[in-house]
Amino acid sequence: MPKFGKRSRERLATCDPRLQELFEKVVELVDISIICGERNKSAQDEAFATGHSGVQFPNSRHNKAPSMAVDWAPYPIDWEDRDRFLYVSGIIYGVASAMEPPITNLRNGADWRRDGRAHGNKFEDLGHTEIHRGG
Ligand SMILES: [Zn+2]
After folding, report:
1. Which residues make up the environment of ion ligand 1, defined by Cβ < 5 Å?
2. Beta-ladder partners of 122
3. What is the distance between the alpha carbons of residues 105 and 134, in angstroms, rounded to a whole number?
4. pLDDT at 75
5. Residue 65 Cα, ligand 1 centroid: separation in angstroms?
6. DSSP letter at 62?
């Protein structure tokens, strides 16, 4: 059974407890790494400047403490493997809906509009999962 390494665990620890529980369940099903949890101002400035985030501090769900967003990647990491990101994203939604209580307001960076369609985004962020506003 896959499990998180030390750095993934440290990053996940900066996230909302619901996201921690969710991703602890997900990693039992599919091997993933946690890339980022909470981002402070300098980290958000860097993410925006390098095109890894579409918004500036403090407008990312990563800028909450604890973080309301998780960046993850299938392991081993291949940033070009869009299909695998979408596959894992589906698993994340499935696990979230089976939690008690379920997390019903997740949003993935492949589907910002939350219409179940992973295309037509101006800014695509396949390995980004957040608890959407209001959650
Ligand atoms: Zn993100």
Report:
1. 69, 71, 128
2. none
3. 8
4. 97
5. 14
6. G
